[in-house]
Amino acid sequence: MRLRAFSTRLARGMGLAVGLLLALPAARAEDSPLRGTMPEDYLPGLKDILRVALKQSPTMITQQIDLSVSEANLLGSDAQLYPQIYGGVGYGESSESVGVAGESGAAGQDLTSTSKNFNYNLSASQQLFAWGAVWKSTRMTKISLLIQQKSIAEAYRTFVVQLRDMYLGLIMKKINVRNAHYSLKLQEAQLAVGEANLKSGMVSPGYMNAPRLQAEDARLATDRLDEDYAHAKRVLAQLAGMPGIEEDSIPVELPKVAYPAQLADDVLASILRDNARSLPQAQTYEMYARQQQLAYEIAKVRQLPKFSAGAGYGLSNSTSISLNAAAPGQAPTPAAIAQEAVTSKSFNVSASWDIFDGFASRAAIRSARQSKRLYERQLQTFLETTLETVQDYRRQVDFSARALRLAETRYDLEQAALNQTTESFRLGTVAQTAVDSETNGLYNAALTLASARFDFLSRWSNFVSLAGADPALEALPVQYVRPIP
After folding, report:
1. Chain centroid to CA 244: how far?
2. What is the dihedral of CA 441, 447, 451, 456, to 10 degrees?
3. How many domains does the structure of the chain reveal?
4. Is the dihedral of CA 370, 374, 375, 380 positive or negative?
5. Tens of pLDDT along 44-80?
6. Does 183 reside within a domain?
7. 266-289: per-residue pLDDT in tens?
8. Please, are residues 309 and 121 in contact by the beta-carbon 8 Å criterion?
9. Residue 19: left if φ>0, alpha if ψ -120 to 50, beta else—which one?
10. Nearest Cα to 310, choosing from 349, 360, 339, 275?
C-alpha cells in the first residue's frame, strides 16, 4: 500500500512537472451565449490584441511565472510525505613514517606504514505519525496553487476590460484627429481667402490678426491630438506585449451595436442565484479561509508527540601495511598486514515531544483563528459590494442603450441634412461652404455617436466581466475559472 501511494504521488509530480512545460489554454466545449456581443466581436483588431496579450503581455507573463513558482512549491511541499533517503561513499589513503636512530652512531632508518580505506553508507527516514500536520501542510501549499490560478483568472478578467477600454478610446482619439484635421482644413481655406482679400486691398492688415491666430491655435491643437493618438497607440502596444499596432487595424468609426437586453437579464439572474460565490475573487477569499483553518488544526497538534522511523546500512573496508627497518643495502620487509571489513546495520523508531514552546503554539492558534475571521469578513464584504455593483451596472447599461438610440437619431438627422445640402449644391442653390459646414456637423455627430457606442460597449464589457460571464475567460484553462467545491 505504501509503495502504491508513493508511485501515485511520483506520477502526479511528474505530470505536474510536464504541465509546467506544456501548459496551454484549454478551450471549453461550449461557447458562451454572450459571444458576438462583446467589443472584440465588432472589432477584429481588438480580438487580435487580446489573443496576443494573453501570451505576450508583461502582466500575464508575470502571472504565469508566479504560477510556476507555486507549482514548484507544491512539489517541494509534497516531499515531506515521502521517505528521505541519503547515501555516501568514500575512499582514502594515508601513510606514516617514523625515524629510528641507529646504534653506536649508525645511520638511522625510517619505519613506514600505509593504510587504505573504502566505505559507503545508505540511510532512510520516514515520519510515521504527526497527527495529520504534515499532510495538512501540503494541502495548504496546494491551496496556494489554486489561489494563484484564480489570481490569473481575475488578473486576466480585469486586464481584458482595460484593453477593451484603451482600444475603444484609441478609436475615439482617431475620430478626434480626423475631425480636427478637417476643421483645420476649413480654417486654412478661410485664411487663404482672407489673405487673398488682404493682398487685393479688400481688407486691412489688422483684420487678419484674428484669423491668423485662430489658424495657429487650430494647428497647435491638431498637433497635440496627433501626438496624443500616437502615444496612446504605443502605450497599448506595450501593455499588450506587441511591437506595435498597425494603423489599418484601428477603424475611424465604431460599428453599429445591438443591445441584447434578454441576455443582460439572464446574466444578472445567474449571478444573483449564485450569490457571486463562483467569481474568482470570491473563491480566493474562501480558499484563504480554508488555509487558515488548516493552519489552526496544525497549530493545535504542535505540542503533541511526533513519531518517525529510520534505517541505515554501511560498509567500511580497510587495509594497513607496516614495514620493518632494514639493514643497510637490504629492502624493508613487511612487519604486519591487516585487513578489516566492518558492516553496520541500524533501525530506529523515535518520538519527539515539544513540551513547552514559550506559548508559540497558543499564538499560532489565535493568529489562525483571527485570520480566518478576517478572510470570511472580506468575502462577505466582497459579495455584498459585487452584487450591488453588478446590479448598478445592469441599470447603467440600460441608460447607455437609451443614450445610444438618441445619438443614432441625431446622426441620422445630420446625415439627412448633409444629403439635402449636397443636392442643393448640385442644383447650384448653395455654395461649397454650406456643404463643408454640414460635413463638419456630420463629423461632430459621428463623434457623438461613437462616444455613445464607446460608452455602451464599455459598460456592457464591465457588466458582463464583473458578473463572471466574460467570454474572453474561455481562453484560459478550465480549472482557472471553474468554481472549487
Report:
1. 22
2. 80
3. 1
4. positive
5. 999 999 999 999 999 999 999 999 999 999 888 888 8
6. yes
7. 999 999 999 999 999 999 999 999
8. no
9. alpha
10. 349
- Detail the DSSP E strand segments found in 130-232: none
pTM: 0.80
255-274 burial, b at 16+ Cβ within 10 Å, e below that, comes to eebebbeebbeebbeebeeb
141, 74 Cβ separation under 8 angstroms: yes
| Residues 444, 446, 448: CA angle, nearest 5 degrees | 70
Do 186 and 440 contact (CB within 8 A), yes or no?
yes
Write the CA distances from 195 to 182, 191, 220, 355, integer angstroms: 20, 6, 20, 100
Crossing angle of helices 280-300 and 133-200, in 10° steps, is: 150
CA-to-CA distance for 37 and 369, rounded, in angstroms?
45
Task: Specify whether the CB–CB gap between 444 and 176 falls below 8 A.
Answer: no
**Is 54 a member of any domain?**
yes
Q: Note every long-range contact of 178-185, with CB atoms under 8 Å and residues 24 or more positions apart, other chains counting.
A: 178/252, 178/443, 179/440, 179/443, 179/444, 179/446, 179/447, 180/218, 180/221, 180/222, 180/225, 181/222, 182/439, 182/440, 182/443, 183/218, 183/440, 184/215, 184/218, 184/219, 184/222
- CATH number at 322 reads 1.20.1600.10
CA distances from 411 to 144, 264, 415, 417, 418 (A): 53, 26, 6, 10, 11
The cell numbers describing 377, all together, are 469578513
Of 264, 287, 275, 258, the residue nearest 469 (C-alpha): 264
Q: Is residue 202 part of a domain?
A: yes
CA distance linking residue 104 with residue 98, whole number of Å: 19
Q: Which domain holds residue 456?
A: 30-99+108-481
Question: Residue 1 falls within a domain, yes or no?
Answer: no
